[in-house]
UniProtKB/TrEMBL annotation:
The keyword Ligase does not apply. InterPro entries: Plipid/glycerol_acylTrfase. SMART domains: PlsC. This is 1-acyl-sn-glycerol-3-phosphate acyltransferase. Pathway: Lipid metabolism. Residues 50-162 form the Phospholipid/glycerol acyltransferase domain. GO terms for biological process: phosphatidic acid biosynthetic process. GO terms for molecular function: 1-acylglycerol-3-phosphate O-acyltransferase activity.
Length: 200
Protein backbone atom coordinates (compact mmCIF):
# COMPACT_ATOMS: atom_id res chain seq x y z
CA UNK A 1 0.00 0.00 0.00
CA UNK A 2 1.33 3.42 -0.92
CA UNK A 3 0.43 6.23 1.41
CA UNK A 4 1.28 9.91 1.56
CA UNK A 5 1.54 11.70 4.89
CA UNK A 6 0.23 15.24 4.67
CA UNK A 7 1.27 18.20 6.80
CA UNK A 8 -2.21 18.07 8.34
CA UNK A 9 -1.50 14.71 9.99
CA UNK A 10 -3.68 12.78 7.56
CA UNK A 11 -2.50 9.62 5.81
CA UNK A 12 -3.96 9.31 2.31
CA UNK A 13 -3.55 6.41 -0.17
CA UNK A 14 -2.04 7.65 -3.42
CA UNK A 15 -5.01 6.25 -5.34
CA UNK A 16 -7.15 8.96 -3.71
CA UNK A 17 -4.87 11.87 -4.58
CA UNK A 18 -5.24 14.10 -7.61
CA UNK A 19 -3.42 16.97 -9.30
CA UNK A 20 -5.21 20.31 -9.23
CA UNK A 21 -4.18 23.86 -9.90
CA UNK A 22 -1.72 24.86 -7.15
CA UNK A 23 -3.85 27.90 -6.43
CA UNK A 24 -6.71 25.64 -5.27
CA UNK A 25 -4.40 23.88 -2.81
CA UNK A 26 -3.07 27.21 -1.55
CA UNK A 27 -6.57 28.57 -1.00
CA UNK A 28 -7.64 25.47 0.93
CA UNK A 29 -4.50 25.37 3.07
CA UNK A 30 -4.65 29.10 3.79
CA UNK A 31 -8.30 28.99 4.85
CA UNK A 32 -7.71 26.13 7.29
CA UNK A 33 -4.60 27.84 8.67
CA UNK A 34 -6.16 31.29 9.08
CA UNK A 35 -9.25 29.91 10.80
CA UNK A 36 -7.24 27.57 13.04
CA UNK A 37 -8.70 24.28 11.81
CA UNK A 38 -6.71 21.05 11.86
CA UNK A 39 -7.24 17.71 10.17
CA UNK A 40 -6.25 14.28 11.48
CA UNK A 41 -6.67 10.56 10.85
CA UNK A 42 -6.23 8.12 8.01
CA UNK A 43 -8.09 7.16 4.86
CA UNK A 44 -7.90 3.35 4.49
CA UNK A 45 -6.41 1.99 1.28
CA UNK A 46 -9.57 0.38 -0.06
CA UNK A 47 -10.89 0.38 -3.61
CA UNK A 48 -14.20 2.01 -2.70
CA UNK A 49 -15.30 4.03 0.31
CA UNK A 50 -18.34 6.04 1.24
CA UNK A 51 -17.28 8.98 3.41
CA UNK A 52 -19.84 10.60 5.71
CA UNK A 53 -19.23 13.82 7.63
CA UNK A 54 -21.29 14.82 10.65
CA UNK A 55 -22.67 16.65 12.51
CA UNK A 56 -23.79 18.87 9.62
CA UNK A 57 -25.45 21.97 11.09
CA UNK A 58 -24.19 24.92 9.04
CA UNK A 59 -23.14 26.00 5.56
CA UNK A 60 -19.69 26.53 7.07
CA UNK A 61 -19.30 22.73 7.16
CA UNK A 62 -19.27 22.79 3.37
CA UNK A 63 -16.70 25.61 3.32
CA UNK A 64 -14.29 23.81 5.66
CA UNK A 65 -14.91 20.48 3.94
CA UNK A 66 -14.02 21.95 0.55
CA UNK A 67 -10.95 23.63 2.07
CA UNK A 68 -9.85 20.21 3.33
CA UNK A 69 -10.38 18.57 -0.07
CA UNK A 70 -8.41 21.30 -1.84
CA UNK A 71 -5.63 21.47 0.74
CA UNK A 72 -4.98 17.72 0.80
CA UNK A 73 -5.57 17.27 -2.95
CA UNK A 74 -8.06 14.49 -2.29
CA UNK A 75 -9.87 13.03 -5.28
CA UNK A 76 -13.39 12.67 -3.99
CA UNK A 77 -16.88 12.88 -5.42
CA UNK A 78 -19.35 14.53 -3.08
CA UNK A 79 -23.12 14.72 -3.09
CA UNK A 80 -24.70 18.16 -2.71
CA UNK A 81 -28.22 19.54 -2.86
CA UNK A 82 -28.99 20.40 -6.48
CA UNK A 83 -29.92 23.98 -5.54
CA UNK A 84 -26.29 24.93 -4.77
CA UNK A 85 -25.30 24.14 -8.36
CA UNK A 86 -26.32 27.55 -9.59
CA UNK A 87 -25.54 29.12 -12.94
CA UNK A 88 -21.95 30.36 -12.96
CA UNK A 89 -20.60 27.88 -10.38
CA UNK A 90 -21.95 24.55 -11.64
CA UNK A 91 -18.93 23.84 -13.82
CA UNK A 92 -16.50 24.66 -10.99
CA UNK A 93 -18.34 22.56 -8.41
CA UNK A 94 -18.54 19.57 -10.76
CA UNK A 95 -14.82 19.90 -11.58
CA UNK A 96 -14.18 19.61 -7.83
CA UNK A 97 -16.20 16.39 -7.63
CA UNK A 98 -19.69 17.73 -7.01
CA UNK A 99 -22.71 15.58 -7.89
CA UNK A 100 -26.09 17.39 -7.79
CA UNK A 101 -28.71 15.52 -5.77
CA UNK A 102 -32.46 15.92 -6.13
CA UNK A 103 -33.94 14.41 -2.97
CA UNK A 104 -37.08 13.48 -4.88
CA UNK A 105 -35.06 11.27 -7.23
CA UNK A 106 -32.92 9.11 -4.93
CA UNK A 107 -32.89 6.14 -7.32
CA UNK A 108 -31.12 8.11 -10.05
CA UNK A 109 -28.61 9.43 -7.51
CA UNK A 110 -27.64 5.90 -6.54
CA UNK A 111 -27.38 4.93 -10.21
CA UNK A 112 -25.14 7.94 -10.90
CA UNK A 113 -22.86 7.02 -8.00
CA UNK A 114 -22.61 3.39 -9.13
CA UNK A 115 -21.79 4.50 -12.67
CA UNK A 116 -18.96 6.72 -11.41
CA UNK A 117 -17.65 3.93 -9.18
CA UNK A 118 -17.63 1.56 -12.15
CA UNK A 119 -15.87 4.09 -14.37
CA UNK A 120 -13.29 5.33 -11.87
CA UNK A 121 -12.37 2.11 -10.08
CA UNK A 122 -10.91 3.55 -6.88
CA UNK A 123 -13.43 6.03 -5.58
CA UNK A 124 -14.36 8.11 -2.55
CA UNK A 125 -17.92 9.37 -2.27
CA UNK A 126 -18.63 12.01 0.38
CA UNK A 127 -21.93 13.17 1.86
CA UNK A 128 -23.76 14.20 5.02
CA UNK A 129 -25.82 11.37 6.57
CA UNK A 130 -28.48 13.76 7.92
CA UNK A 131 -29.34 14.96 4.42
CA UNK A 132 -29.78 18.53 5.69
CA UNK A 133 -28.02 21.11 7.88
CA UNK A 134 -31.25 21.76 9.82
CA UNK A 135 -32.31 19.56 12.70
CA UNK A 136 -33.52 16.24 11.32
CA UNK A 137 -35.57 14.13 13.71
CA UNK A 138 -35.25 11.23 11.30
CA UNK A 139 -32.17 10.62 9.15
CA UNK A 140 -32.70 9.48 5.59
CA UNK A 141 -31.35 6.00 4.78
CA UNK A 142 -30.06 6.91 1.31
CA UNK A 143 -26.42 6.90 2.39
CA UNK A 144 -26.79 3.36 3.71
CA UNK A 145 -28.39 2.23 0.46
CA UNK A 146 -25.50 3.79 -1.47
CA UNK A 147 -22.94 1.95 0.68
CA UNK A 148 -24.83 -1.32 0.23
CA UNK A 149 -25.08 -0.81 -3.53
CA UNK A 150 -21.37 0.03 -3.76
CA UNK A 151 -20.60 -2.96 -1.50
CA UNK A 152 -18.25 -0.86 0.60
CA UNK A 153 -17.86 0.26 4.22
CA UNK A 154 -18.49 3.79 5.47
CA UNK A 155 -15.61 5.95 6.68
CA UNK A 156 -16.83 8.11 9.55
CA UNK A 157 -15.53 11.68 9.50
CA UNK A 158 -16.31 14.06 12.36
CA UNK A 159 -16.32 17.85 12.38
CA UNK A 160 -15.98 19.31 15.88
CA UNK A 161 -16.22 23.08 16.29
CA UNK A 162 -14.97 23.48 19.91
CA UNK A 163 -11.66 21.78 19.01
CA UNK A 164 -11.71 23.04 15.40
CA UNK A 165 -10.83 19.59 14.12
CA UNK A 166 -12.00 17.46 11.22
CA UNK A 167 -11.01 13.86 11.90
CA UNK A 168 -11.06 10.77 9.70
CA UNK A 169 -12.04 8.09 12.18
CA UNK A 170 -13.25 4.50 11.91
CA UNK A 171 -14.98 2.27 9.40
CA UNK A 172 -18.62 1.37 9.80
CA UNK A 173 -20.04 -1.70 8.09
CA UNK A 174 -23.80 -1.46 7.40
CA UNK A 175 -25.73 -4.42 8.80
CA UNK A 176 -28.73 -4.21 6.47
CA UNK A 177 -30.92 -3.02 9.34
CA UNK A 178 -31.07 0.64 8.32
CA UNK A 179 -32.91 1.93 11.37
CA UNK A 180 -30.53 0.20 13.74
CA UNK A 181 -27.52 1.49 11.81
CA UNK A 182 -28.84 5.05 11.85
CA UNK A 183 -29.41 4.96 15.60
CA UNK A 184 -25.89 3.60 16.09
CA UNK A 185 -24.37 6.40 14.00
CA UNK A 186 -26.44 9.13 15.66
CA UNK A 187 -25.20 7.91 19.03
CA UNK A 188 -21.60 7.83 17.75
CA UNK A 189 -21.71 11.43 16.52
CA UNK A 190 -23.19 12.74 19.79
CA UNK A 191 -19.59 13.08 21.00
CA UNK A 192 -18.95 15.85 18.46
CA UNK A 193 -20.37 19.36 18.42
CA UNK A 194 -21.48 21.19 15.29
CA UNK A 195 -21.48 24.94 14.74
CA UNK A 196 -25.16 25.11 15.72
CA UNK A 197 -25.49 22.29 18.32
CA UNK A 198 -29.29 22.50 18.58
CA UNK A 199 -29.58 21.50 14.92
CA UNK A 200 -28.19 18.05 15.65
Amino acid sequence: MRYKKSKSLVTIPERFLTQRNRLFSLVGTSLLSITGWKVSGQIPDMKKLLVVLAPHTSNWDFVYGMALILSLKIKIYWLGKHSIFKKGVTRLLKSLGGIPVNREDAKNTINDVLEIAKREGGILIGLSPEGTRKKAEKWKSGFLRIAQSMECPILLVAIDYPSKEISFRELFHPTGDNQRDIECLKKYYKDFIGKIPEYF
